[in-house]
Write a structure and sequence with these properties.
Blueprint lengths: L1 H10 L7 H29 L4 H7 L6 H14 L7 H7 L13 H6 L16 H25 L4 E3 L4 E3 L10 H13 L2 H14 L7 E3 H19 L2 H14 L13 E3 L5 E2 L9 E2 H4 L3 H11 L3 H15 L10 E2 L6 E3 L1 E2 L6 H13 L5 H17 L1 E3 L5 E3 L1 E3 L2 E3 L1 E3 L5 H7 L9 H18 L8 E3 L21 H13 L3 H17 E2 L2 E2 L18 H14 L11 E3 L5 E3 L3 H5 L12
Antiparallel strand pairs: 1-2, 3-4, 4-5, 6-7, 7-8, 9-12, 10-11, 12-13, 14-15, 16-17, 18-19
Helix pairs in contact: 4-11, 7-8, 7-21, 8-9, 8-10, 8-21, 10-11, 11-13, 13-14, 15-16, 17-18, 17-19, 18-19, 19-20, 19-21
This protein binds 1-deoxymannojirimycin (DMJ).
């Protein structure tokens, strides 16, 4: 420091070499220099990309808003129960004195459902064969769960061959992904002992004070989605308290120049950044575009608009930005708000963004006209640019790279049969039949890719290939749900029995190829004669694959589509009936409620 000061003085003209005057001016100049330095340092910190905490302290009142409102709610609901866990107690102490009752009225919510609330008897099929198939799926769930409980309890996933747990690095130190992902599946299947074990674990052991690097998308779809649906299905306040604490921890990810969140967030510090593999620090369409359903419900439960504002801001930007041929590329800069690459896909990196547009419309009780408009225009652009017919007559969705088509479809893209069919009714009347046909054709293509009754990660339509994986690296199957998901929606909306038959083929194949002594495992090559297991029971197998199979063999009154939309991890979230919730409540025949 001395060196710097003397350098500064040496350059200052007019400073006398001796006496009082010199000491005073030296002090003055020194103070001036020091204050300049401090200002510079603070300024620089604000412009660092991850200066989230500083911004929180010094800027915007809206950043602190969720804390107060969400906690008001929690404080009030906590007075009804004394089982709040450590993480909730810590935050509640900062909210002494909140006294406005903003808590969500669960009973009113139940009255606003069109079909009566849940009971485990719902959906029981009268036909004995279907019932037997449904029981089989329930047995598979119990088997997967029991093994997870025996060998991996509290870890994120089960490794069924080595009989141990897997933690991974997607959830920022959060544990028990398989437990949170399974809550609603166990509940709707009536596996009540298992559900109660899961609930107790969430209550006593789900520690939200973790400090690791999490995928915003994965934590949102699995943990936030799982806790929200557990709350809505059961009315257990504990799930609501947990999800509000977690929801708030995700908010700093939106502190970017555009409000488009980055992909990775440290749940402890709130610092966020982009995936190293995402080009030029971009955010991924399927990640920032798959928050809407959960965030709207976080606002509903907390009576705080901040969550809805965050996702509506994303939508505003997407609406404004120019889209090549009406398409949405997969990479967007959270700094400039511009597309980074022109790669468009209905599979990985793009998929659930489109899904959430139509589901936002449906979940809003068909009032969200903007989501509706965006969905049907996106679908039109997809049809014009991506939908193809193979020489063998199979309809598929190719990928688009700056105008050049890659004739490949991922397993992930097979959800789109289900997406197109749930949106068929609300499109232009003259398009209704067309959408039903398109959904059926895509689902048929995906079924064709299941040549060994399970299908590869990606299949191609070039060089003579017809829905087959031509590369060894594309031949794995990791217990993914998308094809079965489309069977379930196609069944619900057409009641064509072939979808139940196709679902049953998948059950038999899962039993034959993926069931091992201690759980279910993915396989490395769906075409190989001798099976090679990947030693992983993914949490989405319990959350999605088995749930969709169970629903496929259930009657339509189990989670009726008039009342529920499924998030992209198959967690059911209720349709928000604003006028009913704000009024007297009660849309269904009260004699059948409870
Ligand atoms: C799930 O986590 C979700 O379905 C997500 O949208 C895509 N990937 C997996 C299942 O394949």
């Amino acid at each position: 420091r001395k060196k710097i000061i003397s350098m500064v003085f040496r350059k200052l003209p007019g400073v006398s070499a001796s006496g009082m005057g010199l000491r005073l001016s030296q002090k003055f100049v020194f103070l001036l220099f020091l204050s300049g330095l401090v200002t510079l340092c603070f300024g620089a910190l604000f412009f660092l990309p991850d200066s989230v905490r500083l911004k929180r302290i010094f800027l915007s009142k809206t950043e602190s808003q969720p804390v107060t409102k969400a906690l008001e709610d929690m404080t009030l609901s906590r007075s009804k129960t004394d089982s709040a866990s450590k993480d909730e107690k810590v935050t509640s102490s900062s909210n002494q004195g909140a006294n406005t009752d903003t808590s969500f009225d669960y009973n009113k919510f139940k009255k606003c459902l069109l079909k009566p609330p849940l009971g485990i008897e719902h959906g029981k099929p009268s036909d004995p064969q279907t019932l037997q198939r449904r029981e089989k799926v329930k047995e598979m769930m119990k088997f997967a769960w029991d093994n997870y409980k025996s060998f991996a309890w509290g870890r994120n996933e089960l490794r069924p061959l080595t009989r141990n747990g897997h933690i991974g690095n997607m959830f920022g130190g959060l544990r028990g992904a398989s437990i949170v992902d399974s809550l609603d599946t166990l509940y709707i299947m009536g596996l009540m002992d298992e559900y109660n074990d899961a609930k107790e674990w969430v209550e006593t052991s789900l520690d939200l004070n973790s400090n690791g690097e999490a995928s915003l998308f994965e934590v949102n779809i699995r943990y936030v989605g799982g806790l929200l649906s557990a709350y809505y299905l059961t009315g257990e306040e504990m799930f609501k308290r947990k999800v509000m604490v977690l929801g708030e921890k995700l908010l700093p990810a939106f502190n970017t120049p555009t409000g488009i969140p980055r992909g990775v967030i440290n749940l402890g510090s709130g610092t966020s950044w982009s995936w190293g593999w995402a080009s030029a620090g971009s955010s991924i369409l399927a990640e920032f575009g798959t928050l809407h359903l959960e965030f709207v419900h976080l606002s509903e439960l907390s009576n705080n608009d901040i969550y809805t504002e965050k996702v509506m801001n994303i939508r505003k930007l997407l609406n404004k930005i120019e889209k090549p041929h009406g398409l949405y590329p997969n990479f967007l800069s959270p700094v400039s708000g511009n597309w980074v690459q022109h790669h468009v896909s209905i599979g990985g990196l793009g998929d659930s963004f489109y899904e959430y547009l139509i589901k936002s419309y449906l979940m809003s009780d068909k009032t969200d006209e903007e989501a509706k408009k965006m969905y049907y225009s996106a679908l039109e652009a997809i049809e014009a640019n991506l939908v193809q017919k193979s020489p063998g007559g199979l309809t598929y969705m190719a990928e688009w790279r700056g105008g050049i088509l890659d004739h490949k479809m991922g397993h992930l893209a097979c959800f789109s049969g289900g997406m197109v069919v749930i949106g068929a009714d609300d499109g232009a009347p003259e398009k209704r039949q067309h959408y039903l046909d398109l959904a059926a054709e895509i689902t048929h293509t995906c079924h064709e890719s299941y040549t060994t009754k399970l299908g590869p990660e990606a299949f191609r339509f070039d060089g003579g290939a017809e829905a087959t994986a031509t590369r060894l690296s594309d031949r794995y199957y990791i217990l993914r749900p998308e094809v079965i998901e489309s069977y379930m929606y196609m069944w619900r909306l057409t009641h064509d029995p072939k979808y139940r038959e196709w679902g049953w083929e998948a059950v038999e194949a899962l039993e034959q190829h993926c069931r091992v002594e201690a759980g279910f495992s993915g396989i490395r090559d769906v075409y190989a004669q001798t099976v090679s297991h990947d030693n992983m029971q993914q949490s989405f197998f319990l959350s999605e694959t088995l749930k969709y199979l169970y629903l496929l063999f259930s009657d339509d009154d189990l989670l009726p589509l008039e009342d529920w939309v499924f998030n992209t991890e198959a967690h059911p979230l209720p349709v928000v009936r604003k006028s009913c919730l704000q009024g007297e409540g009660g849309t269904h025949d009260k004699t059948t409620s409870e």
